[in-house]
Amino acid sequence: MSQRDIGYHRHMARWQPDARGRLEAAAFELFRERGFEQTTVADIAAHAGLDKRTFYRLLGDKREALFSGSERVEEALVKVVADTDAAPFEAVIAAFRQMAVDIFADRRELVRMRHSIIESSPELQERELRKTGALLAAVSAALRAKGLDETTATLATESGGTVFRVAYARWVASDDDASLADLIDEVATELRAITSAPGRR
Questions:
Q1: Which of 24, 66, 83, 200 is 20 to 30 A from residue 11's alpha carbon, by CA?
Q2: Alpha-carbon distances of 100 from 88, 95, 105, 113, 151, rounded to whole Å
Q3: What is the distance between the alpha carbons of residues 170 and 45, in angstroms, rounded to a whole number?
Q4: pLDDT digits (tens, 9 = 90+) for 167-178
Q5: How far apart are CA 168 and CA 128, in angstroms?
């Protein structure tokens, strides 16, 4: 993820042999080598050993090769939020932490490549913002479904989303061994300290 990036490419760790996985793998490789704008659907299909009709049937457009799997990520986040009895902010942190474990563990270099591809294109950045917004809206809706009012749900979701973005930025930029999940815990602790510290007069 750029600082906006939630990063849900479902084949980042290992490309699958199915047609969709081959197309996503080919797109990722060509975007990295040539750039997003310079890569065509025909290029991706040919690189995957498939035709353009198959590409359009499975992905729709070339941007989706970088954003495939967002529905499953949304479902996973919502499930954690719905199943936990923790306070609203803690429930959101738990959901993002679980996502970090399930999706980002041992994938830092590939996430960095995806980050670089997205940062190179305003079109991809805009798509990322929309996808991220949809994920946060789903999390907020899950909190409201538990009986929370809109303000509480929004504050908890946006605060948790900010923790994730800050932790993600540190993780992508750092060369130490800290996992994304650990950094989420670290940033959440920092935010709790800031919000509970006594104000100055």
A1: 83
A2: 19, 9, 7, 17, 26
A3: 35
A4: 999 999 888 888
A5: 14
In whole angstroms, what is the distance from residue 8 CA to residue 66 CA? Answer: 8
Q: Look-up: residue for tokens 């050993």?
A: 49
Q: Would you state the structure tokens that stand for residue 18, as one six-digit string?
A: 């199915």
Please tell me the pTM assigned to this model.
0.81
Categorize the per-residue pLDDT at 47 as very low, low, confident or very high, splitting at 50, 70 and 90. Answer: very high
Q: How many CB atoms lie within 10 A of CB 76?
A: 16
DSSP-assigned states of every residue in the chain: --TT-----TTSSS--SSHHHHHHHHHHHHHHHH-TTT--HHHHHHHHT--HHHHHHHTSSGGGGGTTTHHHHHHHHHHHHHH--S-HHHHHHHHHHHHIIIIITT-HHHHHHHHHHHHT-HHHHHHHHHHHHHHHHHHHHHHHHTT--HHHHHHHHHHHHHHHHHHHHHHHH--SS--HHHHHHHHHHHHHHHHHSPPP-
Type of residue numbered 155: L
pLDDT digits (tens, 9 = 90+) for 104-121: 877 888 888 888 899 988
CA distance 27 to 64: 10
Phi/psi region, residue 18 (left: phi>0; alpha: psi -120 to 50; beta: rest), is beta
Q: Say which residue, 68 or 133, is predicted with more confidence.
A: 133
